[in-house]
């Protein structure tokens, strides 16, 4: 407690960002430290789990220390620790979990484990202070493309997900073959702004009528075939047009299905989450389609879309307030479901 | 002085508290590879057994490897964060040295000269080191002196090096009345899970009767011997800040090895040219 506010420290190490943050009353970000390893993994063309684990270990003390000092508090002021315990890379997760447990024990602070995906949704509580469940959540990231009904804090009913690649994964793969470097998502977004989204007719994959699932592997194959044909015909690849057309094919389906889900479940709000929620075209298109149906779209600013400790702190706060038992026996669960 | 020692580099995690007098209080997991889930409970148990409060700890020691990469990290990060939060210095202890320490009495009793902890790193690889057991004539004081570097060895290379050490001893012993075996007894004392993996290779490589294996009760990592080494280091003021406590993996990550060797697949390293 400091100045009458309940302070939660959130710790996140599920992939390649070592992050910690102090959040007041589950809603107000007092510090948000993110140490990204992206520069290291770029040399390998993607995240190398063993290297990510090694780097987390080297950085986690300083990241926690800086989160405390940036918030102008000490460990004694912290009322609750929340840590991501899944889903994610097991070796990466366990650094955060072990660090959180050591701190919880040393300082006698209760600890709760947080589902990383609940954290992404909770990122919205940090910027939209009046937002409360129920709402429809759309989670799009390098590992996830999911539509989730959220009836209450940290209650998630998954309605649909990807049957093969996640949206972010599809962006990364296409980015790589058109010569844009890792991470592909932001590079595609940027290149697409200079391209014509209608120049190449990539298919929209909606699956069975009414389905809220996604599939991007067929689209990916179509794009690869297109690129091969163009190359064999000796034509120059128009990178910006490919990026724009491919992106449009991905985000249009996502936007349609998110709006369809909200309508079907009578939700008046769609809440976006995950790294790909920063995609500017997805943000614009989903707003456009939702507005027609009278549905509001909320999204966190880009810094809270990426993996961060603040979202974990917020989700931990609501889990704790809703009666989740603190534990020092937390384990990492790489394949944790919603 | 109350030192907390953490050992998570092997199959069973353990924690010990050692007092200035050398009295040790320990807790060891009964479940294999349960380090992450069980470690704080073991630490709490060891501290309670010692009859102290965690605020009375003076140092945090960890076995920093070699061993399981994941295990090493759990122990090291736990030690680092506890030290940071409690404002305590850290002590780094080699898992191999602690394994040698653990069997020192048994090795001296067996008449061994060399103590050789061997950790199985799969595919004929090991992490190992060789220590000479030194002791006073009344056997009261026993100490370890490193005679071969702690590093990654192919089991065959390690055994070849030990064979030549035995040959040197043989040369020294030649001309004396006693037989070599009487002189040297079980010259080499092996310990560690490398025995379980490479027993047959060892048996076919070294002369019979010149080596022996640690019993299973002493063969594996335990925080107690980490604590004993840590106490000596604390008394000699060989301490570190939490940020200086680093894992000793003894091996680059596979992707790093390949990047260095230039064999990281071009497909994943560079954007594909169309």
CATH architecture of the largest domain in chain B: 2-Layer Sandwich
Tell me the name of the CATH homologous superfamily of the largest domain in chain B.
ATPase, nucleotide binding domain
Classify the fold: give the CATH topology of the largest domain in chain A: Nucleotidyltransferase, domain 5
**How many strand segments of chain A?**
10
Structural class of chain B: alpha/beta
Low-confidence region ranges of chain B: 269-274
Based on the structure, what is the oligomeric state of the protein chains?
Answer: heterodimer
| CATH hierarchy, class of the largest domain in chain B | Alpha Beta
Rounded to the nearest angstrom, the radius of gyration of chain B is 21 Å
Task: Tell me what you see in this structure.
The complex is a heterodimer of chains A (338) and B (274). Chain A is 44% helix and 19% strand. By secondary structure, chain A is an alpha/beta fold. Chain A has 2 domains: 7-127 and 305-321, ATPase, nucleotide binding domain (Nucleotidyltransferase, domain 5); 135-301, 2-Layer Sandwich (Nucleotidyltransferase, domain 5), CATH 3.30.420.40. In chain A, the strands form 2 sheets. Chain A has a 5-stranded mixed sheet with strand order 3-2-1-4-5, with helices on both faces. In chain A, strands 8-7-6-9-10 form a 5-stranded mixed sheet, sandwiched between helices. In chain A, strand 6 (135-140) and strand 7 (145-152) form a beta hairpin. In chain A, helix 2 (49-70) runs parallel beside helix 3, helix 5 (167-177) packs parallel to helix 7 and helix 5 (167-177) runs antiparallel to helix 8 (239-264). Helix content of chain B is 41%, strand content 23%. Chain B has 10 helices and 10 strands. Classes of the chains: A alpha/beta (338), B alpha/beta (274). The interface between A and B is large, with 48 and 41 residues.
């Amino acid at each position: 407690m400091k100045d009458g506010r309940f302070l939660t420290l959130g710790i996140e190490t599920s992939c390649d960002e070592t992050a910690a943050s102090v959040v007041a009353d589950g809603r107000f970000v007092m510090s948000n430290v993110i140490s990204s390893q992206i520069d290291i993994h770029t040399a390998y063309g993607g995240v190398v789990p063993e290297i990510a684990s090694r780097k987390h270990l080297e950085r986690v003390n300083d990241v926690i220390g800086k989160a405390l000092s940036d918030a102008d508090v000490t460990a004694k002021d912290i009322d609750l620790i929340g840590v991501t315990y899944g889903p994610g890379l097991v070796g990466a997760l366990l650094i955060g979990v072990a660090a959180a447990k050591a701190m919880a024990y040393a300082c006698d602070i209760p600890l709760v484990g947080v589902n990383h995906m609940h954290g992404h949704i909770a990122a919205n509580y940090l910027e939209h202070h009046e937002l409360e469940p129920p709402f429809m959540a759309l989670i799009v990231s390098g590992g996830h493309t999911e539509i989730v009904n959220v009836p209450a804090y940290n209650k998630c009913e998954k309605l649909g997900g990807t049957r093969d690649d996640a949206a972010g994964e599809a962006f990364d793969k296409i980015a790589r073959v058109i010569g844009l470097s890792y991470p592909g998502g932001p590079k595609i977004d940027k290149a697409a702004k200079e391209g014509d989204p209608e120049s190449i007719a990539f298919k929209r994959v909606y699956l069975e009528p009414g389905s809220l699932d996604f599939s991007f592997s067929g689209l990916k194959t179509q794009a690869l075939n297109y690129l091969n044909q163009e190359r064999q015909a000796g034509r120059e690849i128009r990178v910006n047009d490919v990026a724009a057309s491919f992106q449009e094919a991905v985000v249009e389906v996502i936007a349609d299905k998110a709006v369809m889900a909200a309508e079907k479940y009578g939700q008046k709000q769609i809440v976006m989450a995950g790294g790909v929620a920063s995609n500017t075209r997805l943000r614009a298109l989903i707003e456009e389609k939702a507005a027609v149906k009278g549905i509001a779209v909320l999204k966190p600013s880009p810094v809270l879309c990426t993996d961060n400790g603040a979202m974990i702190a917020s989700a931990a706060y609501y889990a704790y307030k809703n009666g989740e038992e603190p534990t020092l026996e937390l384990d990492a669960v790489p394949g944790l479901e919603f | 002085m109350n030192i907390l020692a953490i050992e998570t580099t092997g199959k069973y995690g353990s924690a010990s508290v050692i007092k200035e007098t050398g009295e040790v209080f320990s807790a060891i997991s009964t479940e294999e590879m349960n380090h992450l889930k069980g470690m704080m409970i073991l630490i709490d148990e060891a501290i309670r057994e010692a009859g102290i409060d965690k605020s009375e700890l003076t140092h945090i020691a960890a076995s920093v490897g070699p061993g399981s990469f994941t295990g090493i990290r759990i122990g090291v990060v736990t030690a680092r964060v506890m030290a940071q939060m409690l404002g305590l210095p850290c002590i780094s202890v080699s898992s191999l040295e602690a394994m040698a320490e653990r069997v020192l009495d048994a090795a001296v009793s067996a008449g061994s000269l060399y103590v050789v902890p061997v950790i199985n790193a799969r595919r004929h690889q090991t992490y190992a080191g060789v220590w000479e057991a030194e002791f006073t004539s009344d056997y009261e004081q026993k100490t370890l002196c490193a005679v071969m570097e702690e590093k990654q060895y192919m089991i065959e290379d390690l055994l070849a090096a030990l064979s030549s050490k035995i040959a040197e001893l043989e040369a020294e012993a030649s001309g004396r009345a006693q037989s070599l075996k009487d002189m040297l007894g079980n010259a080499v004392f092996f310990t560690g899970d490398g025995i379980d993996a490479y027993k047959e290779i060892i048996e076919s490589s070294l002369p019979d009767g010149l080596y022996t294996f640690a019993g299973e009760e002493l063969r594996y990592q335990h925080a107690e011997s980490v604590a004993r080494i840590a106490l000596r280091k604390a008394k000699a003021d060989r301490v570190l800040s939490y940020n200086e406590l680093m894992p000793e993996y003894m091996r680059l990550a596979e992707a790093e090895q390949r990047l260095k060797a230039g064999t990281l697949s071009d497909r994943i390293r560079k954007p594909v040219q169309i």
